[in-house]
Amino acid sequence: MTQSKPYLKVLLLASVSLLSGIVLHHFAQFSYLFFDANIFDISLLAFVFMLPVVVHFWYPFLDRVPLLPTLLVAVMLAGMNYWIKEVILRFPTVLNLVVYVQLIMLGLSLALVGKHVGISRKWLKPMLATVLVVVGVFLGHYAFSARWLTGFAFLSLVVIFLTFNGRRHFSRVALFTSLAASLVIGFSITPDEKVYASQVKFHDKVVFSTKTPFQQIDVTAWKGNRWYYFNGTNQFSTLDEWMYYEPMVHPVMQMADAKRQILVLGGENGIIARELKKYEEVAQVDILPLDTTFYQLSKKHDMFKDINQNALNYPAVTRLGGDPFRHLHASEALYDVMIIDLPDPVDLELNQYYTHEFYQLCRKALKPDGFLVTQSGSPYYATKAFYAIGKTLESAGFHVLPLHNQVISLGEWGWMMGSATITTLEMRKKCEDIKLDDMNTRWLNREAMKMMMSFGKPYKITGSIDINTLKNPVIHEYYNAGTWKFE
Fold first, then answer.
1. What was the pLDDT predicted at 158?
2. 3-state SS string over the chain?
3. Contacts for 322 with CB less than 8 Å, ≥ 6 apart
4. Helix 5-35 crosses helix 67-79 at what angle (to 10 degrees)?
5. Percent of the chain at pLDDT above 90?
6. Per-residue confidence at 2, pLDDT binned at 50, 70, 90?
7. CA-to-CA distance for 195 and 160, rounded, in angstroms?
8. What angle (nearest 5°) sits at the alpha carbon of residue 340, between those of residues 335 and 216?
């Protein structure tokens, strides 16, 4: 062996250490974001790393092997990070095993190289390892991504081939391993998974995150389903969204004799438009979103188009602009059906969309025989707010039929359906006769319709309920005083 060969081993060890540092940093960040803590015991990690260094330096049980398997383990961890993390999410202790294995292999490699290049002072070995790993972590954090690892691993494997070029048999094995590993890595390595800052708020994996001028939107995934959070609160899920949107859309559409012109207030996610597409009579769907950025996202991004079935690009759909209150005040358009899916009245600004004045404007925008439905919060968690919405609609000239359903991911939720011409009793009888046999619904049928109209006694004694007006904004107080946590 020539004099320069040991120094090629030092170069190889540096490459392996850098790659190991990148991998270890990646998994350390993963542990913090998914488990909201650094689950590693630093003293134990130091012991796991130093023990093989010391043992192998004085009692070498492997002569030349540790460098190659150490590199291959690091490359495997980098190339298979997506699948490994899927296992870790189910079995968190695997994360410790992954880190311990990599540190042990790195310690063995360090001892081997240290012995061959003549390092005999004990304190130089941990110093060298520490410097290399720290540099690896630094570069991993600021410079590298998984897309770099293919070329990085190939370069390191080439160094192995050059290092052991003096032994013909081993050089062939190293060359074959280099080529095979590079091909496998090149085709199988996954792009670096984006880790979103909002991950610390969720146990499930965040697969999409963005902030609009109106709200923070986060999408998490678990067991093939996605949950859509707005400002940290679950709004709907692919697990059961039809248990919310089918009761909101189909009863009011079945009640209306005419259903050509539809106005949707809110509806940014496009799911209401998806359900409206099931009616051939619908010629015009005007959607007035509060969050126009979210509307555009739902129109263009696959994460949302998958769930709304590209409904916002339906030719009948038109996006309106402006504030719902001002728009209704200025507009002369008349609609057969109005569907209101605006955010809960958590503050005074949103409270205005549940006032006597707002519902008067809604009545003005409906044809004489038109129907309205509005999401009304939970009759179980916010009982007074739910019934206050119904009473406020009545004050604006509507006959009101309350509806509710148990949505798996949201809990008990409710809606108010209103008509200016048909009484509550007539609406109830008409709903009981709805068959929905020709509707492609996933949950709603005739039996479900009867159940949705059955309430029993209110969960909470409501006492006196005021009408919600701009001058007397009570609904947001009722809503915020609800029994959301049952503490």
1. 46
2. CCCCHHHHHHHHHHHHHHHHHHHHHHHHHHHHHHHCCCCCCHHHHHHHHHHHHHHHHHCCCCCCCCHHHHHHHHHHHHHCHHHHHHHHHHCCHHHHHHHHHHHHHHHHHHHHHHHHCCCCCCCHHHHHHHHHHHHHHHHHHHCCCHHHHHHHHHHHHHHHHHHCCCCHHHHHHHHHHHHHHHHHHHHHCCCCCCCCHHHHHCCCEEEEEEECCCCEEEEEEECCEEEEEECCEEEEECCCCHHHHHHHHHHHHHHCCCCCEEEEEECCCCHHHHHHCCCCCCCEEEEECCCHHHHHHHHHCHHHHHHHCCHHHCCCEEECCCCHHHHHHHCCCCEEEEEEECCCCCCHHHHHHHCHHHHHHHHHHEEEEEEEEEECCCCCCCHHHHHHHHHHHHHCCCEEEEEEEEECCCEEEEEEEEECCCCHHHHHHHHHCCCCCCCCCCCCCHHHHHHHCCCCCCCCCCCCCCCCCCCCCCHHHHHHCCCCCCC
3. 288
4. 30
5. 45
6. very low
7. 33
8. 135
Q: What is the pLDDT of residue 105?
A: 77
361-405 tens-digit pLDDT: 999 999 999 999 999 999 988 889 999 999 999 999 999 999 999
Q: Please give the Cα distance from 371 to 403 (Å, whole number).
A: 14
Distance CA 350, CA 265 (A): 13
**Alpha-carbon span 108 to 148, nearest angstrom:** 26
In this structure, the strands spanning 261-266 and 335-341 are parallel
Q: Show Cβ contacts of residue 386 under 8 Å, excluding neighbours closer than 6 positions.
A: 376, 377, 378, 379, 402, 414
CA–CA separation, 88 and 10 (whole Å):
33
Environment class of residue 191 by beta-carbon count within 10 Å: exposed (0-12), middle (13-18) or buried (19+)? exposed
What is the pTM assigned to this prediction? 0.66
Q: pLDDT higher for 172 or 319?
A: 319
Tell me the C-alpha to C-alpha distance, in Å, between residue 401 and each of 240, 341, 363: 24, 17, 16
The token duo for 10 is 């030092």
Taking the C-alpha atoms of residue 440 and residue 219, their distance in angstroms, rounded to an integer, is 27
pLDDT in tens, 139-198: 444 444 444 444 444 444 444 444 444 455 554 555 455 445 444 444 444 444 567 888
- Which two three-digit tokens encode residue 424? 């509550």
- CA dist list (Å): 438 to 46, 69, 283, 360, 449: 67, 63, 19, 34, 15
Token digits for 124? 């130089």
Q: Residue 82's Cα: distance from chain center in Å?
A: 16
Give the neighbor-by-neighbor strand order of the sheet with 335-341: 317-319, 284-288, 261-266, 335-341, 366-375, 411-419, 399-407
Contacts of 93 (CB under 8 A, 6+ apart): none
